[in-house]
Predict the structure.
Amino acid sequence: MINNGTLTKISIKKSEIHGLGLFAESNMPKGEIIAEYIGEKVLGEEGDRRSIEDDNPFIMSLDEEYDIDGNCKENLAKFVNHSCESNVTFEVKNGKMWCIALSDISAGEELTTDYEMDCHELLPCACGDDICRHYMNHPEDIVTLKKEAEEELKKVSSAKA
Ligand SMILES: [Zn+2]
């Protein structure tokens, strides 16, 4: 069994943010390793192909060469939803991807991470946090993407006129 020591501490439940989410079943101190992001190790090119052609949202970059395809049922960490005020992060250690507590987490809390999506379109966020930046994109990309969207809109409306 994978992640034997950690499986009892987390569970999958209906989330207020999106679909199903991953929840803490016990208190966890900051820095705690919560779960491994389990999946098939594939070459980066194959990871890109799966994410684009197969619309697979569970591809994570492991290093310069490899990705992990977390789209398997053993991978509970794939249920971590996005939030702008996140309490977990994903880090690579010893060639594996781990879900790690960013702050002290109480039993019952939903585990969330900041996706900081590297994407060419704006992806709206529904996390509802006080500090919500309204998009799941990387904060540095949002300004540029917003400008692009506005210019696109101008083009469309001037073409109509
Ligand atoms: Zn948000």
